[in-house]
Amino acid sequence: MAKSEQRRATADVQRLDIHNSDIPVVCRACEARHRGVCGALSPDELKTLSRTTVKHKMPADAEMIASDEPIETYSNIMAGVVKLTKLMPDGRQQIVGLQFAPDFLGRPFRASSTISAEAATDVAVCSFPKTVLEEMVKRSPELGHKLHEQSLKELDEARDWMLTLGRKTAAEKVASFLHLIATHIDPEIDPSDGAIRFELPLKRADIADFLGLTIETVSRQLTKLRKAGIIEIESNRLVTVPSLRRLESACAVDSD
Amino acid sequence: MAKSEQRRATADVQRLDIHNSDIPVVCRACEARHRGVCGALSPDELKTLSRTTVKHKMPADAEMIASDEPIETYSNIMAGVVKLTKLMPDGRQQIVGLQFAPDFLGRPFRASSTISAEAATDVAVCSFPKTVLEEMVKRSPELGHKLHEQSLKELDEARDWMLTLGRKTAAEKVASFLHLIATHIDPEIDPSDGAIRFELPLKRADIADFLGLTIETVSRQLTKLRKAGIIEIESNRLVTVPSLRRLESACAVDSD
DNA sequence: CGGCGCTTTGACCGTAATCAAGACTAGTGG
DNA sequence: CCACTAGTCTTGATTACGGTCAAAGCGCCG
Q: Which residue range or ranges hold the HTH crp-type domain (chains A, B) (predicted)?
């Protein structure tokens, strides 16, 4: 256990730039600087922003953004998975998006959001005041563009999922969910057709809320996929996909 | 008939600005200048853009953007309704968005889209080359911001609809669809609780593809809503909603 | 051990899909 | 003008997929 943690720390160090003395310390090992919105910022801008950032850790199920409440901060997700949910007055719930590190979290240009955000797993975030980011956007078109790209990515993903919700069978939905997790949980994964082993970031109830199903149906379809040899289930949360290709064919889509 | 058309023309004229001699002629009566992306442009910029614009009319069912094909132009929708669809290899289809005038149509910053766009009704558009708009975005942060706002609006709508697709019953889905059309088809509508009469821009098969249902179920739920007195059906396409409030309660949401 | 949260499995039921027929509308041509 | 056709929509009978209700298994922690 301690050994594997040490190994990960070493990998982080290797990701540091050769010459980065002008990068703020708190930003040096941050993935958001490479693939997130902070990639648009100059060392100087990073320094300005980093003076106002606060890093938080929150446990699974913590509420991060409440629906219809004013938002004061934006965040970058450093680790963990965040679920975006919508709730009906009678309690029915739908997860409308999952966000992984190093995604940007928040609804730009609006005082409050119509969705709420909740930690699906333990989550680490880097937060900063809304006003500071909005000031920086005014001065850096590059940053505005990055934020726009993030919005467009979320829009594409939302529409992909609308097809899943509206037109796929329960079996295809569960396969699509596993495929989504398998290809998003580990940013370093390559799409070659080896076995993939990962931990599900959602419990059954969340999976059901994401797929528009009940927990019983999710459970039944998982055992069906297991019996069909498409997945192996080590424990409730630990899943192995021997062949991504076979899983994809269970999703009933070519381009996904 | 001729009378009502004349009345509408008069309304358009009144919408013109008092001093607009420097606004290009083709843009003067255009709604996109008031509520669409062109609202971000100065008279000079409008002039530049209008030199490259082409206005088109296309009949219902015309394909406007093919999935996975390179896109050369963006468009503003001047009139009519456009449906954005996704298709599965086996023919199952899902409409993932509807766009009304004066919405912007196109996927910024990407060579091709994963969805296709089709005219739901007869449609009029104002198109311009991708490259021209992208050049203008570089010089006008205001325009980039408008485009971002449009993307965010589509994202909010997509997520609203995910809740409908994943968690609502057939009856609630059809009611939600009628509510969406009633509140979007006529930009000049006010939400006061009078009777609203409108023409459905989609045929039953399209409504089914939008709601993740079959045409038979859509038809049955429409007659059920009619028998419940929530709607009146004059003809296949012509619907009256006596009380928007009653329709909303049939959608099972408070905030929509 | 006992209690609690999560998951699985089984039996039964209900909603929406499927299959099938018929009504209505609009367009075409005799 | 009407017959004919094709497309669209409605209605009915039956089926099946996924939901509901219920019970039991499992892992975890006090």
A: 168-245
What distance in Å separates the CA atoms of residue B56 and residue B127, rounded to the nearest whole number?
A: 8
Match 């050369």 to its residue by tokens. B72
A222 touches strand D (CB under 7 A): no
CATH architecture of the domain with residue range A2-162: Sandwich (2.60)
Q: Which residue of B has its CA nearest to A138?
A: B141
Protein-contacted positions of strand C (CB under 7 Å): 6-11, 15-20, 25
CB contact under 8 A, A109 and B84: no
Q: How many whole angstroms separate alpha carbon A101 and alpha carbon A148?
A: 17
pLDDT along chain A (256 residues), means of 10: 43 51 87 92 93 94 87 92 96 97 91 87 95 92 94 96 98 98 82 85 98 98 97 96 95 73
Q: Which pLDDT score, from 0 to 100, does residue B191 have?
A: 66
Strand D nucleotides, any atom under 7 Å from protein beta carbons: they are 8-13, 17-22, 27
Tokens standing for B248? Answer: 């909303």
Q: Is the pTM of this model over 0.85?
A: yes
Its CATH architecture, for the domain B2-163, is: Sandwich (2.60)
Residues 50-69 of A with CB under 8 A from B: 68
* A90 shares contact with chain B (CB less than 8 Å): yes
Pick the CATH number of B168-251 from 1.10.510.10, 3.40.47.10, 1.10.10.10, 3.30.1360.170: 1.10.10.10
Task: Give the angle subtended at the CA of B151 by the CAs of A127 and B51, to the nearest 5°.
Answer: 130
pLDDT digits (tens, 9 = 90+) for B72-88: 899 999 999 999 999 99
